[in-house]
Design brief:
Number of helices: 14
Shape: flat
Mean pLDDT: 79
Order of helices and strands: HHHHHHHHHHHHHH
Distance between the termini: 54 Å
Strand content: under 5%
Structural class: mainly alpha
């Protein structure tokens, strides 16, 4: 029974430990996924503070989906009041996600409205895996068998997550030139992260003196803080994770993968831009070459024509050779020696070579004649085109001159009408000037009065601004004290966790000692029982011996 109680206590402690690890993982993912959503919702002036609360009505999730996909989520109630309306909004968002290929399981609108953080985190991770993290197999169609009874958990990693992990490890090895095997353990000291940020800042075209020296920092926490600030300042990549959590090892692997995917996408975009610029330079070079070749278009035309003519001549030559072969008289039938047969074959070969050379000369002369005719034709077409362009330019020039003459006549008539109007206007000008002077005097007096009023308001605003500045300083002081208090609380929490760890070790030692004590007691008890049994056996033997003696 004592062993059973010890086993039950061990199981309870293990379950508590697993629960604390899952809670820590959910907290880490909650902070990272919230920061990622706020990074995309920055242009929408929407901020998410708590995923389990802010996504309940389905409106914020719809805005986030529209930001990711650049598409409108239709049939969304902007101001839902009832629970059923919120569930409808969330179900509409889920249907929109399924239509865009987002894979998620066992998540319904009721879960989002009820604030089930575990399922919400798995849903946000599915969105990040679909729209943020680009894998080599993203464009391929994947068929994955899924157990419908499986419950989604933010602590478990699917096959595609392992592929993402391997891809990011290869990316870190490629960018940093260092060996990386574990995303969570190798990034704790911040050296790999600092090397990656430095190299990516160099790749972005920064001067050598403008690249911050992050790896040289000795303190791990300060190195990670400076690295996150440099990534935000130079690469425009927000700090989705906190430096303290990364150094202390409290950041889970999915949060790290989501954060590193921002660097991976930036690096891939940079490489694509470089390859695109190379392609553009090649295309521009091709265009320049084509433009230069266009200036010699007649030459290209003659080459094409020559190639056609040569092809025709070769066919013609083959036909003539065959005809010549047919016209060659056959020798009389007689007994011929090998020497005579060889002589006749040599003569036939010479005749064929002569015919071939004659046909080639004829084809060359024909090609030259056709080239000359084509050149003359092109020159004639060019001359005609130049004459037509010159005549067209003269016609357009005459039309322009005629339009200018008509416009000048209209301007002269308009000037005459304006002169008549000026004469009429000059008569009313003096009366208008008198009225204008009177109005300007009234406006001057009103402006002086307005200026005095504005000066009084400016003084009041200056006093108000001074008061707000004092209030701001007071709030900053209060915030600083709150931060110090939070730091003290974190330190106390760390000490408490260390104390709990020490107590846990002591309890394990006590349990081990208790187990040893029980084992020793059992052994002693067995030895005493054996001694008692031996004593009883001796007494029995003694009693039997005594009885035998009495009987004798």
């Amino acid at each position: 029974q004592s062993q059973i109680r010890l086993c039950n206590m061990s199981r309870s402690r293990i379950s508590m430990l697993i629960g604390s690890v899952q809670q820590q993982t959910e907290q880490s993912q909650n902070k990272t996924f919230t920061a990622w959503m706020n990074y995309h919702l920055l242009k929408s002036n929407i901020r998410v503070e708590d995923l389990s609360v802010d996504l309940q009505d389905g409106v914020v999730l719809a805005y986030f989906l529209e930001t990711l996909t650049n598409e409108e989520v239709k049939r969304i109630r902007k101001n839902p009041k009832l629970r059923i309306q919120m569930i409808e909004n969330c179900n509409t968002d889920l249907q929109f996600m399924k239509a865009r290929g987002v894979q998620f399981f066992n998540v319904s609108g009721e879960d989002i409205v009820d604030g089930n953080l575990k399922l919400i985190l798995s849903l946000v991770w599915a969105l990040a895996r679909t729209f943020q993290i680009v894998t080599p197999k993203k464009k391929e169609e994947e068929h994955i068998e899924v157990d419908l009874e499986f419950e989604a958990s933010p602590t478990m990693i699917s096959n595609s997550d392992w592929e993402i992990r391997d891809m990011l490890i290869k990316f870190l090895c490629e960018v940093t030139g260092k060996k990386v095997t574990n995303l969570k353990e190798d990034l704790v000291d911040g050296e790999i992260l600092a090397t990656m940020v430095e190299n990516m800042i160099k790749l972005s075209g920064r001067a050598e003196e403008c690249v911050p020296q992050l790896v040289n920092e000795t303190d791990e926490l300060m190195r990670v803080c400076l690295t996150l600030d440099a990534a935000d300042q130079h690469l425009r990549i927000p700090a989705l994770i906190e430096a303290e959590d990364l150094v202390s090892g409290q950041v889970d692997e999915k949060s790290i993968m989501l954060f590193l995917s921002l660097f991976k996408n930036l690096y891939d975009n940079k490489r694509q831009l470089e390859s695109l610029s190379v392609c553009i330079d090649e295309e521009l070079a091709n265009i320049d070459a084509a433009k230069n070749a266009f200036d010699y278009g007649s030459g290209f035309a003659s080459v094409d024509l020559n190639s056609d003519v040569i092809g025709v001549d070769h066919e013609f030559l083959k036909l003539n050779i065959e005809e010549e072969k047919v016209e060659i008289p056959e020798p009389q039938e007689k007994v011929r020696t090998n020497i005579e047969i060889q002589r006749e074959e040599d003569e036939d070969a010479k005749m064929l070579e002569l015919l071939v050379s004659e046909q080639r000369e004829m084809a060359e002369r024909q090609r030259l004649l056709e080239e000359e005719e084509e050149r003359k034709r092109l020159e004639e077409e060019l001359r005609k085109r130049l004459e037509w362009e010159r005549e067209e330019e003269e016609r357009l020039e005459l039309e322009r001159i005629e339009r200018e003459r008509q416009e000048l006549a209209l301007k002269l008539a308009e000037a005459e009408r304006e002169a008549l109007l000026m004469d009429e206007l000059n008569q009313d000008k003096e009366a208008m000037e008198r009225e204008e002077r009177r109005r300007m005097e009234e406006e001057r007096l009103a402006m002086e009065e307005e200026l005095r009023r504005l000066e009084e308001e400016a003084a009041a605003e200056e006093r108000e601004r001074q008061r707000e500045l004092e209030e701001t300083l007071r709030l900053e002081e209060s915030l600083r004290r709150e931060q110090e208090e939070a730091e003290r609380i974190r330190e106390e929490e760390r000490l408490r966790l260390e104390e709990e760890e020490r107590l846990r070790r002591e309890m394990e030692e006590i349990e081990l000692m208790e187990k040893e004590r029980l084992e020793e007691e059992r052994r002693l008890r067995e030895e005493e029982e054996m001694e008692e049994i031996e004593l009883m056996e001796k007494e029995r033997l003694e009693e039997e011996r005594r009885l035998r003696e009495e009987e004798e």
